[in-house]
Amino acid sequence: MFLGIDIGGTTINMGLVENGRVVERKSGPSFLPGDSLQQTLDKLASLIESIFVPEVESIGIGVPSVVDTKRGIVYDTANIPSWKEVHLKEELEKRFKVPVSVNNDANCYALGATSQISGDADSIKVAVTLGTGVGIGVVIGSRILNGRNTGVGELSALPYGKSIIEDICSRKYFDAMGLVPAEVGARAKSGDRQALDTFAQFGENLAQLVNVVLLAYDPDCIVFGGGIANNSEFFHEPMLKKLAELFPYSESLKTLEFDYKPQSEYAIIGASML
Fold this sequence. Notes:
The chain has helices at residues 37-49, 88-96, 105-114, 171-175, 181-189, 193-217, 232-246, 250-255, 265-272, and strands at residues 2-7, 11-18, 21-29, 58-63, 66-68, 73-75, 85-87, 100-104, 124-130, 134-140, 143-144, 159-160, 163-164, 221-225, 257-260. The chain is α/β, with parallel strands linked by helices. A five-stranded mixed beta sheet has the order 3-2-1-4-8, sandwiched between helices. A five-stranded mixed beta sheet has the order 11-10-9-14-15, covered by helices on one side. A three-stranded antiparallel beta sheet has the order 5-6-7. Helix 6 (193-217) crosses helix 7 (232-246).
């Protein structure tokens, strides 16, 4: 049995994983902006203690940050001001006496989500999380492509106009219009034309990112996660149509596979697999 943890900006999700399935889950609020480093570590340890059992063989943690995976050191974590340099592996191994692995949260989602998708040892699968921001993880066969500091997938930070690509294909796109994605999704389900148009434009925006992903990695499959992916029925076709205009190699698009797996347990499963 393994413990997988996904540390988000608002919620910490964790689960006991056995045979690739989450058999028990716990969630709690993430850290407060004013929390000291010690307070955050104590809160995390307390939440782990609430689910930890003697059968746990190891702990895997996904964090929204760059990570030295060999030493388990986390740097400059988004939404956690006190996490400038955190020796997370060392700290938790002292407390729980089991091996601890740490990686980027998008990489953990990618590992968990793509484990459900068939492919050979050389297949390239890219996972894109569409949430408050955009995360990208790359898996070759069943192995995460980390890079030096888990930064291989940071394509959403590429410039786009006067900002970056992430700003047009994440929650930030909706925030700029004073909209909430879930509410727009509910309106789209009822046939609201403005909501449908909003998602159609989002799909065209997302095609800009997918185009870069294809040029960078030439993947066999792209899987989308995150809350916004729950509304894929409204933006998938506009994305494909725009992508056909942008991507220069039309034959490659004919065999490219897309999948949507917005369920949060995939990040937990992936963390448990580290």
